Amino acid sequence: MAAGCCGVKKQKLSSSPPSGSGGGGGASSFHCSGESQCRAGELGLGGAGTRLNGLGGLTGGGSGSGCTLSPPQGCGGGGGGISLSPPPSCGVGTLLSTPAAATSSSPSSSSAASSSSPSSRKMVVSAEMCCFCFDVLYCHLYGYQQPRTPRFTNEPYPLFVTWKIGRDKRLRGCIGTFSAMNLHSGLREYTLTSALKDSRFPPMTRDELPRLFCSVSLLTNFEDVCDYLDWEVGVHGIRIEFINEKGSKRTATYLPEVAKEQGWDHIQTIDSLLRKGGYKAPITNEFRKTIKLTRYRSEKMTLSYAEYLAHRQHHHFQNGIGHPLPPYNHYS
């Protein structure tokens, strides 16, 4: 099951159901802006292989800029009435286990960001991870043998791979997983999934490579909280679980940067997630209080295609790349 959690464009938000809005039904993946249809497990917030679209939109045919999680097997929607009781096990933020942090060298170029609280530990995410994603995509598009095992850490993490394109950095694809995956196989898998199988966009082509930006987000510090407002815009990503008007359990997620980029406050973000998760009834404060919310942080690295080429010119065979470096074409 995959997930997405990034906003494609700014949305007009309303607590009333949108007219003629379609439900996000039957999707089996997550987009970056984050809607999901069923509870997805413990730490990974999803069963093994749960895929998420972190920037918005419903994988599998949903519309809009949110991401949607499909229900794992055995996660039935229960056809009874809707319970408005508070979520169970509602305590003070319960910290869920996350992978041990591994160290890595800091890149000299590229854009790095962390929503984690200040600490002495080094960031795990690195420019080499973005380079590896570019390697994988380039080899696939040109029919070369896939690059060999990279040298960065192979610790397991929940992760997202995001592609943006052009000077205005328009979203081009974003899918990830809340299930902790070894980074070598996880980045290889979600590089191609986000580039070729994000249902909001056509598969990427060779011609788009020179205009791409690749971001790798590693998710950490998952905490279950009782109050749906107990998170900070621009710091936490959030995943919500709720019961829709038909009695089915749904989930949705936004990565930490989405609410800030959209200019949303807490209520606007929650309401957007509910709508993208397929909730069509009027949104009341009473209903918001029934939401089960998990907050998390992330480490994010972004690399442009030009930076990737510069990096690879100095480390051409370091990562097992046996193909010629692609020619760089300036933006048209």
UniProtKB/TrEMBL annotation:
Residue ranges of the region described as Disordered: 1-35
Domain (AMMECR1) ranges: 118-312
Gene Ontology CC annotations of this record: nucleus
SUPFAM superfamilies: AMMECR1-like (SSF143447)
PROSITE patterns tied to this protein: AMMECR1 (PS51112)
Family matches, as InterPro entries: AMMECR1, AMMECR1_dom_sf, AMMECR1_domain, AMMECR1_N
Gene3D superfamilies (UniProt xref): Hypothetical protein ph0010, domain 1
Pfam families in UniProt: AMMECR1
PANTHER family from the UniProt entry: AMMECR1 HOMOLOG, NUCLEAR PROTEIN AMMECR1
Official protein name in the record: AMMECR nuclear protein 1
Organism of this sequence: Myotis myotis (Greater mouse-eared bat)
